[in-house]
């Protein structure tokens, strides 16, 4: 392989780390990749680490020993996140978003790769210290968000559906009670989607009473796996009975007046929780 100058190595090293987050990579691999001494690679990584931390775009962890190496953990600064969430709240307050039943039209946000990319990075920042094996979401609107988070955590996505798809093979199905309509519904997950004992991070776009998320929690139990976190983009406030107690929400829909087309959206508990994590 062509031998690169340090400037070239730094560019390619940074690019490689960013595209392989949460993966332990040995110094030997990089030394062979660039035909360089491990000491030179270590110096390069020290420069990258300094820049990541100065810009608060990530952490570069070093693991000592024969099986050690480096691992890139994507992060974001509190100031960046607060600015973004404030802008998101303002965007969601557009009165033209009001839909029957107190829901909001959000497909322009969910369908925007740039917005999803940022939201995915922020959720990955929130759960960076958790051992996550897979992201779970409910079809269909939660899928873009789940994949955005999974990209930054470098884990697969499993998709829970209402309907059976023959291409997914045998399924595990459960009945659950919809929190908003109180109707009994069915959700299913392909048996091959989730290994027993997996640590699952549930991600969804909207939560009202939490019936769907409660159903996914019960479905995870069917696979003898564990829910390590629940993240939602928007939670509805003033719900009579919340079926899920522990969750992280980026924004909170505090008021919807369908008659006057009035929408009020505020910060959820995301920023407060992340601030506490960073302090600890």
From TrEMBL:
<dbReference type="InterPro" id="IPR050118">
    <property type="entry name" value="Pur/Pyrimidine_PRTase"/>
</dbReference>
<feature type="domain" description="Bacterial purine repressor N-terminal">
    <location>
        <begin position="5"/>
        <end position="74"/>
    </location>
</feature>
<dbReference type="InterPro" id="IPR010078">
    <property type="entry name" value="PurR_Bsub"/>
</dbReference>
<keyword id="KW-0238">DNA-binding</keyword>
<dbReference type="InterPro" id="IPR036390">
    <property type="entry name" value="WH_DNA-bd_sf"/>
</dbReference>
<dbReference type="GO" id="GO:0045982">
    <property type="term" value="P:negative regulation of purine nucleobase metabolic process"/>
</dbReference>
<dbReference type="InterPro" id="IPR029057">
    <property type="entry name" value="PRTase-like"/>
</dbReference>
<dbReference type="InterPro" id="IPR000836">
    <property type="entry name" value="PRTase_dom"/>
</dbReference>
<dbReference type="Pfam" id="PF09182">
    <property type="entry name" value="PuR_N"/>
</dbReference>
<dbReference type="InterPro" id="IPR015265">
    <property type="entry name" value="PuR_N"/>
</dbReference>
<dbReference type="GO" id="GO:0003677">
    <property type="term" value="F:DNA binding"/>
</dbReference>
<keyword id="KW-0805">Transcription regulation</keyword>
<dbReference type="Pfam" id="PF00156">
    <property type="entry name" value="Pribosyltran"/>
</dbReference>
<keyword id="KW-0804">Transcription</keyword>
<dbReference type="GO" id="GO:0045892">
    <property type="term" value="P:negative regulation of DNA-templated transcription"/>
</dbReference>
<comment type="subunit">
    <text>Homodimer.</text>
</comment>
<protein>
    <submittedName>
        <fullName>Pur operon repressor</fullName>
    </submittedName>
</protein>
<dbReference type="InterPro" id="IPR036388">
    <property type="entry name" value="WH-like_DNA-bd_sf"/>
</dbReference>
<feature type="domain" description="Phosphoribosyltransferase">
    <location>
        <begin position="113"/>
        <end position="254"/>
    </location>
</feature>
<comment type="similarity">
    <text>Belongs to the purine/pyrimidine phosphoribosyltransferase family. PurR subfamily.</text>
</comment>
């Amino acid at each position: 392989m062509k031998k690169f100058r340090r400037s070239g190595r730094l560019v390619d090293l940074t690019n490689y780390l960013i595209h392989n987050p949460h993966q332990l990579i040995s110094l030997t691999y990089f030394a062979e990749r660039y035909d360089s001494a491990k000491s030179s690679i270590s110096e390069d990584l020290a420069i990258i680490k300094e820049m990541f931390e100065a810009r608060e775009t990530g952490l570069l962890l070093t693991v000592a020993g024969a099986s050690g190496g480096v691992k890139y953990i994507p992060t974001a600064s509190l100031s960046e996140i607060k600015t973004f969430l404030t802008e998101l709240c303002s965007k969601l307050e557009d009165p033209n978003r009001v839909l029957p039943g107190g829901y909001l039209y959000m497909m322009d946000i969910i369908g925007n790769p740039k917005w999803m990319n940022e939201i995915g990075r922020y959720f990955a920042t929130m759960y960076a210290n958790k051992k996550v094996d897979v992201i779970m979401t409910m079809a269909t609107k939660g899928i873009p968000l789940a994949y955005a988070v999974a990209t930054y955590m470098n884990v697969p996505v499993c998709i829970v559906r209402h309907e059976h798809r023959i291409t997914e093979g045998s399924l595990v199905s459960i009945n659950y009670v919809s929190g908003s309509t109180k109707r009994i519904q069915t959700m299913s997950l392909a048996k091959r989607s989730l290994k027993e004992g997996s640590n699952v991070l549930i991600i969804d776009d909207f939560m009202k009473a939490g019936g769907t998320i409660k159903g996914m929690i019960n479905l995870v139990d069917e696979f003898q796996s564990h829910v390590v976190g629940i993240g939602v983009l928007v939670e509805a406030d003033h719900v009579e009975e919340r079926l899920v107690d522990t969750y992280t929400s980026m924004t909170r829909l505090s008021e919807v007046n369908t008659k006057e087309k009035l929408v009020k959206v505020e910060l959820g508990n995301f920023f407060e929780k992340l601030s506490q994590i960073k302090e600890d």
